[in-house]
Amino acid sequence: MTEKILFITGRLAEKQVRQVLANMAPDFLYQVHVMGVTVAALITTDMIARRLSDTAGADRIIIPGRARGDIEALSRHFGIPVERGPEEIKDLPQFFGQAAHSYDLSLYQTKIFAEIVDAPNISVEAIVERAYYYQANGADVIDIGCLPDTPFPHLSEAISTLKQEGFSVSIDSLQDSDLLAGARAGADYMLSLTAKSLWIADEVAATPILIPETHGDLSSLDQAISILQAKNRAFIVDPILDPIHFGFTDSIVRNHQFRQRYPEVEMMLGVGNLTELTHADTSGMNALLLGICSELNINQILATEVSRHACRAIREADRARRIMFAAKQNNCLPKHINSDLLTVHDTAPFTSSFEEIQFLASQIKDPSYRIQTSSEGLHIFNRDGLHSATDPFELYPKLGVETDGGHAFYLGVELARAEIAWQLGKRFTQDQALNWGCAAKIEASAVDLHTFKPAGNTLKKTGDHNSTRQLDQIAGETVVN
C-alpha cells in the first residue's frame, strides 16, 4: 500500500516545497498543507494541533525542520507519526534517502594507535593526560614513542601507570632494551621487531609488530611470520607507508602485495607519513587512508598529532573508520553517511538561487533583517529592500545601524559567517554557527566516543609502526612545526 505523507509549511515556502517534491518523483503520495503564517520556521506544534482539523488520510506528517514544540505530543494528538523534516527544503531528497538507510556509526573495524612521540621528554603525569585526550578522540591504544639517543628513565613507570589507569599500551622503539623494558612493564604491543630481533617476543607476552628487515623487502618478513605462526603467536605486520615523493606509490603497492600474499595476517598502516608530511587538510587524507584500510582489511593504524595542521588527525581517523565500515557493510559508496569529514565544504552549500531570494525578499513585511547566501554572494533583506555583495563592508552603509551598536555587532558577525561560507562553499544558516565537522574544537563532542565499540571480533590483538622517528630520517625533515 502506497504511503501518504502530509507536509506542513508556510506561505513563502509552499511553492518551493511543491517544486522539490515534484522533482523528486517520490514513491509515496503527498499533500502540502499551508499554515496561516508567512515563514515556516514560526510554525509550532501547538499551532498545528489547533489549526489542522483534517490530516487528509495521511500515514505520516512532516513538519518544518525549525518548527518548535513537542512532536511526540503532536503524534499522539493525530494518532499518526509526526517527524521534523530537514531545515532546508532542498534537502528533502537527501532526507528521504537517509530515512531509507540507517547507518550505525557506533561500529568500526580499524584500531587507532595514538603515539605520544615525545614521551621521553615529558612527565608521567603529562603522558597520562595526553593519553586521556587521545582516548577521548577515539584512540584504542596509547603508543609510547621512544626517541633515538634520548634517555627515558621513566619508561617503565609511564607504562605501568597507564595500565593502572586502564589503557591499552604499546611501546614504540627500535632499541631492544626499550622494547624489553616496556613489555615487562605491561605494554600490550611492541613496535617494531624484525627477523633479527624476533627473540624479544620469546621473552615477553606483548604482541609483536613486525617490519621488513630491509625497507621495502617483503621477503624479509617471511621467516618471522612462519616462526610466529608455528608458535600460534599473535602478531601484526607493517609493510611501511612512505611519504609522497619518497616511495609513496610503491609503498601502497607493497601493502597490496602483502595482503595478496598473506590474506589472513593482521596488518598495520602508519598514516603519519602522509598526514604529518603533507601540508594539506588531514580530514581528506584520513578518509582516503582509512578507505585503503577498509579495502585491504588493515585493522590497525598508527596516528600522530605532531604538526599543527594535524591537530585533529586522531579524531578525523576515528570518524573515517566508522564511515568506511558503514559503507563497506552496506555495500555503498562513502557518501551521505556522515558529514563530519566535510570540514571545509558542504555537498549543497547554497539552498536558494538569487531569484528565489529575490522572491522571498519581496514578501517580507517586517523590519527584521534576513541574511542568505547564493552562488552569487551575500544577500541581506527586510521590508525596506534587498542588498547584495561579496564583501560585507559594502553592505554596512545600507543597513542604517550606525547608532545601534548591538544590532551592528550582530549583523557583522552573521555577515562574516556568511562571507566565509560563501567563499568556501559551506552552508550558511542565520543564527547558527558554521558546521566544521570534526575539525572544530568542541571538547564535549568527544565524550560520547567512550560508548563506541569495535565491530564484533574483527579486532584481534595488534600493534603498529611507522612512527615519526622514521619520518625524520626521510629527506631530513622534522615533523615538528
Topology of helices and strands:
Elements: E1 4-9, H1 14-24, E2 29-34, H2 45-51, E3 60-63, H3 71-78, E4 82-84, H4 92-100, E5 107-108, E6 111-116, H5 124-136, E7 141-145, H6 155-164, E8 168-172, H7 176-184, E9 189-193, H8 200-203, E10 207-210, H9 222-230, E11 236-237, H10 248-261, E12 268-270, H11 272-275, H12 282-296, E13 300-303, H13 313-329, H14 354-363, E14 370-374, E15 377-382, E16 385-389, H15 405-424, E17 453-454, H16 468-473
Parallel strand pairs: 1-2, 1-3, 3-4, 5-17, 6-7, 6-13, 7-8, 8-9, 9-10, 10-11, 12-13
Antiparallel strand pairs: 14-15, 15-16
Helix pairs in contact: 2-3, 5-6, 12-13
Number of domains: 3
CATH topology of the largest domain: TIM Barrel
Give me the count of strands.
17
Sheet with the most strands? Answer: 8 strands, parallel
Structural class: alpha/beta
Lateral arrangement of strands in the main beta sheet: 11-10-9-8-7-6-13-12
How large is the radius of gyration?
Answer: 28 Å
For the record, the CATH class of the largest domain is: Alpha Beta
Q: Quick one: CATH superfamily of the largest domain?
A: Dihydropteroate synthase-like
The share of residues in extended strands comes to: 15-25%
Helicity level, as a percent range?
25-40%
CATH architecture of the largest domain: Alpha-Beta Barrel
Cα distance spanning the termini: 62 Å
**Silhouette:** elongated
List unreliable stretches of 5+ residues. 443-454, 456-481
SS field, number of helical segments: 16
